[in-house]
# Entry
Amino acid sequence: MSTFQQIIHMLAYGVILFSVVEVYLTLNKLWTRRHIKEVADSISISARAIGMIPGSIFTLNYFFAQQWQGVIDGMIWICAAIVQIMVAAGVWVAGNKRSNFFNLLGKSLERETKEVFNLAKYLFNIESREKVIDLLAATALTDKVLNEKEKAFVEQIANEWGIKVSWDEWISRYKKKDVSALFGMSIEIRRYLDLNPTKKELKLMLKVIKQLSDQSGRSGPENQYIIDEFSEAIRQYRSGDYLEYYQVQIVPQEKEQHERLQASDIEMKSRFIGSGFTYLLEPFFTQNYADSVVTEFQELGYFATDNKVFK
# Structure
């Protein structure tokens, strides 16, 4: 080891002192107020717990690499997070001292869950709120099934904004045999993006979509397909134009299929090719999502395929 490396090695141990001082000053201010309920309620247990995950992984990585400075620093911050979680749970709040820690933790998390959309209420501008609810409702019904968790999740946000969700109308729309619920969500994505949401709103919207997908109870990769579709739509929206996308082509095999498509509420283009009509659904932004729409129509007996379009 060179002299320079030895100096850096020793300085790394010295830097740990800064972490100790920072943690001490942070916890000292908190510790003197640990019995105050408002202080406990102001700390997010979820945020601290999520922050511990990468910290713990990095600490283990440092341990296996025998980088003891990183191990010590990581343990300092993990201990600090544990103390903050205990304060947030209300362990030292008057009236809670006889309660079990895990009961207090559960109550705090339940309360935090109810408050999770308080910030969202102010971040989304008033004009976009109805479109946000429309997009969430369409997302909840991509499998044409609305479970109670999805319904409660969407209604919690809608109620904060004073918006009534017409579930009967949404369910009636997507229960129709020849309506693609996945394409319905795609339409709502475009309508939302047409409002020119800010970067902050898009980031929050993606987070909300992910949280809603977690409530769906769907097994398999469908949830990730939905998240990927919205993420790619956002990416292309930010670039200023939809430079490439996927197009689904549906070719009715019978007169009855043609009539059903014409009578449906699906927003699609049609063109006459050869001896019949081909119906075009677009745009989709990921291959997996377009393939899922193709599968929907194939299961209904249509000939359907998709292809990539470049502008």
Observations:
- The chain has two domains: 3-114, 118-310.
